[in-house]
Amino acid sequence: xxxxxxxxxxxxxxxxxxxxxxxxxxxxxxxxxxxxxxxxxxxxxxxxxxxxxxxxxxxxxxxxxxxxxxxxxxxxxxxxxxxxxxxxxxxxxxxxxxxxxxxx
Length: 104
What we know:
Blueprint: H1 26-32, E1 37-43, H2 45-58, E2 62-71, H3 75-85, E3 91-93, H4 98-103
Parallel strand pairs: 1-2, 2-3
């Protein structure tokens, strides 16, 4: 999809595991750019998004998971992950609340 292609200057990282950090230099590249806060979205909330939040939080990033910008198989799993798993590691906000999180 042309709209999703990286723009000049965008950071592109080849990931080879389910998490975004293992085996990559992403934490260093983010820190080089002065990034301290990361917004997490994606597919399979209870596996990949939760894992991403954990890896980023363990690497001392302030993480926000956008609840309506991720999904998984079954509403029960989605709800349990967003209400119990993610809040231990990251903030959880809706896309409508994201601007407030960014300004906090």
